[in-house]
Structures are given as structure tokens and as C-alpha cells.
Specification:
- The structure is a single chain.
- With about 425 residues, this protein is α/β, with parallel strands linked by helices.
- Among the domains are: about 1-10 and about 285-360; about 10-200, Rossmann fold, CATH 3.40.50.
- Helices cover about 55% and strands about 10% of the residues.
- The chain contains ten helices and nine strands.
- It has helices spanning about 1-20, 65-70, 75-95, 160-165, 170-185, 190-205, 235-305, 315-360, 380-400, 415-420; strands at about 50, 100-105, 115-125, 125-135, 140-150, 215-220, 225, 365-370, 375.
- The chain has a five-stranded mixed β-sheet.
- β3 and β4 form a beta hairpin.
- The longest helix has about 70 residues, at about 235-305.
- The relative contact order is 0.12.
Length: about 425
């Protein structure tokens, strides 16, 4: 009796496990980004810079491809997603008409009214999770390491048209957009105007710290406030404003590059996500079936091997032995079938890895020219923008006459040309 109860309990547990794993995925309710319903004065219209996300590759696993693959982390793919996903968030923010200029910016770019940064936590065809932080130029933290997660919207995978119409994880970007609006709406009109002025003054102070000294001050709450403004017609401020316009043009060009990059990877990335989700589903089902068959087979073996021998005649013993043999063979067959299902699951996992590697080859880093200066994204873009910032400071020094004079035999070029065509840093 105990053995029968054990076998029945094992069967019940297996069926319960199978039901949990293979439960049907329900449609995800759609979340819409809040649209602007009133006109926002230009003085309060905040610009937003979305930094390229951190791909979220664990430091202790860097270089260990096998360990990363077990966690479904493929470095090249993650780095591509870290550039791609900010463009989706930018598009969501732009469509709401709640903001000024919204750009995807290098991680080294500063002096924007509001800066959003993020870290990828989990990303596959069926689930997305991102940690988001948002801070304004005055130092207020709007969002602090908040995790945004969503299951896939299966409706997006039905047709190519539906996939183009709405991203499978649009809910994540809509939630972030709504939280940014909620944080902004808690501020007064004067707070918003102060943010814009502080961002401008911080840019100026980065170029001319002596001339801009004392323009801002930090209050008791740690928020930067405008202490005083430069006099109207101040030539120093005029020069800085012209330089900032050039800096904005470079950032716009980088933003356009990210947009082009995202557009180019759209088709292959959408195909990867669809196939990835399909492979994940197949692997999950295969593993569920493997567990169920293995456990049921083991239960059958227990019942057959340890069944009591209570026959009283030759014929009854023969029937009992035959039943025991049949149970044993059936149990072995179920266990073997379970082992095969585990092998099938591994095949699907390998197929997913191959698809990922194929996609990684398609989204290799690309190169863009910014005003005659070659920028290479994923690391090099940060270095190039850093060099551009150095050039802006040098330009300011030249325009104010503080730069070292060039030798007479080699006169310096016009400053307008220097700004228009940044020099490529030596390798």
C-alpha cells in the first residue's frame, strides 16, 4: 500500500509540475503613453537625453561565453540592444508631445535638462526587464533604479504588420514615459525654468569656470539654483552660446546615427525575437515533458519492481509476472522518452544560440562621420565625443585669446573651420 501511495504521489507531483510549466500565456493589457493635452510654454519645455543603456553583462562572467550563454546573455547582442532600446524610448517620448528635443546621447554627454540612463537586466523574445534612473540638471532624482518589466505582447508576433505597428514590449517604454511625466508634473513652472537655465549655465561653466563662477548655488536640499545671470550682451556668454550650438549639432548627428542603426537592425532583430520566443517555448515544453515522462516512468518502475508476489496458482503467477514485466518495460520506455525530451530541449537551446550568433554578426559596430570626424559607436563613440568636448574648450580659449599663439611660420586656421571639422585624435 505504501508503495502504491508513493507511486500515486509521484504521478500527481509530475502532473502538477507539468501544468505549472505549460500554462497558457494570456494577452498582456496594453499601456499607452500619456499625451500632452495643453500647450507647454517653451521656457518650461524640457529637453531629454537618453544615454545608451548599460548592456548588463555581469562583470564576474565577462569573457566566459559558456556561463553567459547559460543565462541567455550574448554580449554582442546585448550591446546592440543597449543602443537599440533607447531609440524606442525616444520615439515614445517624442510621440507624447510632452518634451522639447529628445535625443539618444553618448554616456559622456552632459548638460541636458533631463538625463535618462538604464541597465538591461533580462531580454529575450518573451520577457524584458530594464532598470531606469532619471535626473534633471538641477540635481533632482526623478526615477531611481526603478525596474520596468513586461511579458511579451503576443499580438505583436502575429504578423509583420502588427510587429511594425507596436513593439512587443511597448508597455515598458510607455510606463517609463508616464513616470517621467508624473515626476515633471510635480514641479512648479519656476522649477522647470530653473532646470533649463541651470543646464545652460553648467555648460558655460564647463568651458569657462572663472567667468561663470557664482552663477549657480546649491540649496539646503541639494538642488542647484540660479544665483545670478550674466548681463545681457555679455560677449563671453555670446561666444559660449555659439559653441553650444555647434555641440548640439554634433549630438544631433550622433542621435541620427543611433536612429539609423536602429532602423537597419529592425528586421533582423524582430526576426530574432520571434524565433527566440518560439525556441524558448519549445524548450520549455520539451523540458516539461521530459520531467513528466521521467517521473512517471520512475513511478511505474517502482510499482512494477516492488509489487508484492501474492499469486497462489501457476497461471496467476504467470499473469502477475507478465504484468510486472510489462510495467517495468513501460517504465523504462517512459524514462528513455524523458531523456530524449531533455536532448530535444538542448537542441532548441543550441538553435537559439546559433540564431543569436547569426544576429550578432548582422549588428556589428558601424562607423559614422560627424562633421568630417569619424565616430565608431560602442565605446569609440564615447572616446570621440570626449575628444570633441576637449576641442570645444580649446575653441573657446582660442576665441577669447587665451590659447597659446602659433608659430609665425604656421598660422592657426580660422576658428570657424576648427569647429566645423574636428580633428581626428591620433591613434
Amino acid at each position: 500500500m505504501r508503495l502504491k501511495l508513493l507511486a500515486l504521489g509521484t504521478i500527481a507531483a509530475a502532473l502538477s509540475l507539468c501544468g505549472c510549466v505549460t500554462s497558457e500565456t494570456r494577452p498582456v493589457p496594453k499601456i499607452a503613453a500619456k499625451q500632452a493635452t495643453v500647450h507647454i510654454p517653451e521656457a518650461e519645455l524640457l529637453d531629454v537625453g537618453i544615454r545608451v543603456f548599460d548592456p548588463g553583462i555581469p562583470k564576474n562572467l565577462e569573457g566566459d561565453e559558456e556561463a553567459l550563454a547559460k543565462k541567455r546573455i550574448y554580449p554582442d547582442l546585448r550591446k546592440a540592444e543597449a543602443r537599440y532600446m533607447p531609440t524606442l524610448l525616444r520615439a515614445t517620448l517624442e510621440e507624447t508631445a510632452q518634451w522639447g528635443a529628445v535625443r539618444v546621447i553618448p554616456t559622456t554627454a552632459d548638460f541636458v535638462d533631463v538625463i535618462v540612463s538604464g541597465t538591461l537586466i533580462d531580454s529575450n523574445g518573451g520577457f524584458l526587464s530594464i532598470d531606469i534612473t532619471a535626473v534633471d540638471a538641477a540635481g533632482r532624482v526623478w526615477i531611481k533604479d526603478k525596474r520596468y518589466s513586461s511579458l511579451v505582447d503576443l499580438g505583436a508576433y502575429k504578423t509583420q504588420a502588427s510587429l511594425k505597428a507596436r513593439d512587443p514590449f511597448q508597455n515598458v517604454y510607455s510606463q517609463i514615459a508616464n513616470d517621467l511625466v508624473a515626476a515633471r508634473d510635480k514641479l512648479t513652472a519656476l522649477d522647470r525654468e530653473n532646470i533649463r537655465r541651470v543646464a545652460s549655465l553648467k555648460f558655460a561653466a564647463d568651458l569657462a569656470p572663472d567667468a561663470m563662477a557664482g552663477m549657480t548655488a546649491v540649496d539646503k536640499n541639494g538642488i542647484t539654483q540660479v544665483a545670478r545671470l550674466p548681463a545681457q550682451g555679455d560677449p563671453t556668454l555670446g561666444r559660449i552660446e555659439r559653441i553650444r550650438e555647434r555641440d548640439t549639432a554634433v549630438v544631433d548627428t550622433v542621435n541620427d546615427y543611433y536612429a539609423s542603426f536602429a532602423e537597419n537592425m529592425d528586421d533582423s532583430y524582430d526576426s530574432w525575437r520571434q524565433t527566440s520566443f518560439s525556441e524558448l517555448e519549445k524548450e520549455m515544453r520539451a523540458r516539461s515533458a521530459a520531467r513528466t515522462r521521467t517521473v512517471l516512468g520512475a513511478a511505474a518502475l517502482i510499482a512494477a519492481i516492488f509489487a508484492p508476489n501474492s499469486c497462489s496458482t501457476y497461471d496467476s503467477c504467470r499473469i502477475n509476472n507478465a504484468a510486472r514485466t510489462a510495467g517495468t518495460m513501460g517504465g523504462i520506455a517512459a524514462v528513455l522518452s524523458g531523456i530524449k525530451k531533455y536532448a530535444d530541449a538542448r537542441v532548441h537551446a543550441d538553435a537559439l544560440k546559433e540564431l543569436t550568433q547569426s544576429f550578432q554578426a548582422e549588428v556589428a559596430p558601424q562607423v559614422v562621420d560627424v562633421e568630417g570626424h569619424t565616430l565608431r559607436l560602442t565605446g569609440t563613440a564615447e572616446d570621440q565625443y570626449r575628444e570633441w568636448r576637449k576641442l570645444l574648450k580649446q575653441l573657446y580659449l582660442e576665441e577669447t585669446g587665451n590659447a597659446a599663439a602659433p608659430p609665425p611660420a604656421a598660422p592657426a586656421p580660422a576658428t570657424t573651420n576648427t569647429a566645423a571639422t574636428p580633428a581626428t585624435p591620433s591613434s
